[in-house]
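User: Okay, second chain of the day. Same drill as before: sequence in, C-alpha cells out.
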Amino acid sequence: MLIRRNREIPSSEITPEGLYYSRRAFLGRLTGVAATAALGGTLAAACDADAKEKKPLKDEPNSYEDITSYNNFYEFGTGKGDPQDNAPKVLLPRPWTVKIDGLVSKPGDYHLEDILRTAKLEDRVYRHRCVEAWSMVIPWRGFPLRDLINRVQPRPTAKFVQFTTLADPKQMPGVRRQVLDWPYLEGLRMDEAMHPLTLMVTGLYGKDLPTQNGAPLRVHIPWKYGFKSGKSIVRITFTDRQPLNTWQVAAPSEYGFYANVNPQVDHPRWSQARERRIGEWGKRPTLMFNGYGDQVASMYTGMDLRKNF
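Assistant: Same drill. C-alpha cells below.
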C-alpha cells in the first residue's frame, strides 16, 4: 500500500519520541495504552505486507537513533557503533551507478537517479531480524525489487539474482582488513526476488538512507535474517546458477543460502528461539519467517528448512 512518495520529514519529527503512523503523516506522540492500540491499527495500513496478511504489525518502530547507531556493516568496522562513527565521514553516496548484467535483456550501467526517476517509492514498516538474536522494526522507504527486474527483462533461463556491494578501501576502512572475502555478495532465488515484500531500500523514516545503513541503495527481504540485505549495492547479476553468498563462504557450517528466519534451528553458537528487540530489556519469541509466513511459506513447500538454512 502506497503511503507517501518522496516526502522529506522535518528533523524534529525524526526523534526517538516520534512514532511512524498512518499513510497521511507522523501524527505526533501518544502515550500509554491508547498509543499501543492506535499503533497496531495504523501500522497495518503503513505496511502493505501486514495489510495483505490482515494482521496488524503491532510492534512499535524503533527510533531513528536506534536504527542508525546499531548496525552490522563490516566494511566500516565490526563493532555495532563503527558504521555510524566511520561511514558518514567517508562514504559518498552520489553519484552512484549500478551495473546490471548476466542473463538479462537490458544490461547496462544504470545511474541511480535514472532508476529513482521511474521508481514508485513506498513507505513500509518491516521487522528486521539479525542472526545474532536481536531485532528492530524499521520504517523503510523504497520500491519493490520486482519493478526493477521487470524493467531490465531477465531471460527465461535466469533463476537467481546476485548482489555485489561496494568494496572501496579508500572509503571503507574495514575493507582494508581481511575480515571477509570482499566484495560482499548476496543472492536470491528469482521467486524470492520477485516477491512483493522484497524491497530496494532508498531511505528510512521518510529521509534518504544514511550511509551507515547502506546508502544509497540496499535490498531488504523481511522474512530472512538481516545478513541477506546487501548494502551499498553496485551490481546486480542474473544467473542460472545458485550464487554463493559471503557468509556462506566464510562459515558454511553456520550460514546457508536461504537464511529464512527459523526459530527451531539454532545457530551453532547461540539459540534463535528468542530475540531481543533493540530498546527493550527482555526477550520475545522469534517468529517463523519473521512473522511473514502467511505470505512466503508457500515458496518453500517441500523443502527441509533445517538443511536449507
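The chain has one domain: 11-300.

User: Thanks, on to the next one.
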